Amino acid sequence: xxxxxxxxxxxxxxxxxxxxxxxxxxxxxxxxxxxxxxxxxxxxxxxxxxxxxxxxxxxxxxxxxxxxxxxxxxxxxxxxxxxxxxxxxxxxxxxxxxxxxxxxxxxxxxxxxxxxxxxxxxxxxxxxxxxxxxxxxxxxxxxxxxxxxxxxxxxxxxxxxxxxxxxxxxxxxxxxxxxxxxxxxxxxxxxxxxxxxxxxxxxxxxxxxxxxxxxxxxxxxxxxxxxxxxxxx
Length: 233
Ligand SMILES: C[S@@+](CC[C@H](N)C(=O)[O-])C[C@H]1O[C@@H](n2cnc3c(N)ncnc32)[C@H](O)[C@@H]1O
Hints:
Blueprint: H1 8-17, H2 22-29, H3 46-53, E1 61-65, H4 71-78, E2 82-87, H5 90-102, E3 108-111, E4 124-130, H6 141-151, E5 152-163, H7 176-182, H8 193-199, E6 204-210, E7 226-232
The structure holds S-adenosylmethionine.
The site of S-adenosylmethionine has 20 residues, from helix 2 and strand 2.
C-alpha cells in the first residue's frame, strides 16, 4: 500500500515530497549567523512596532508562525505578551532562546511544523507571521488559513510580512500551478495586494502596504521588497 493516496492528508504529503524538505534547508540556513541576511538583525518589524504605537495591538496571547531567531517574539514578550513562537528549525530556536535570555524575557518556543500543531481553538489575540507564509506551498495554503482562523479569538488580528511579487528580495513571480511544473517555490513566493485579499478573503482587511525601509540605527526592521498586511477575524 506504499505511496497509495487514500485521503486528503496523503495527497498533501505526496505534494510535499515533490518540493524541498524544509527542516534540513532551514537548519543549514541558520548554521552561519554571520552571513549578513537582512532579517538576522535582532530588531522587530516596523509594522509590528507601529501597531503597538497606534494601540491596535495590546498585551495578549500571541502565536508566532515561523519565528526564526525570535526577534519579533522577543518584542511581543517585552510588551508583556504571552508568546507561543513556533519554528521547525532547531538551529533557529537555539539562537532565539539565547536571545531571549540576553533580553531577559520569557517566550514559549516550540519546535514543530506549523501544520502539526495541536492548537487550542480561539486561544490567541494575535497570530503573527514574518516571512514564513511565502515559503508555504500552495497546496498547504488552505490548512494555513484554517490554522490562523482556528487559533484566533473573535476579532483577533493576523499580521503578515511576505515577499512582494517580483520584488528586490526575490518574491517569485510564478503561478501556483508553476510551482508544480517547476517543482520549486523558487526561493519563496511573491504576493500582491490583490492576491492576499483573495487568499484571506474571510478576514477583514485593516491594511496592506509595502514595508517601510528603515535604517539600522532605528532599531526596527524594514526593507523594501516585502509587503505587510494586517487582517482581523
Ligand atoms: C524567512 S524565515 C523568517 C524568520 C523570522 N520570522 C524572522 O523574520 O526573523 C522563515 C522561517 O519560517 C520557518 N518555517 C518555514 N516553514 C515552516 C513550517 N512549515 N513550520 C514551521 N516553521 C516553518 C523557517 O524555519 C524559518 O525560520
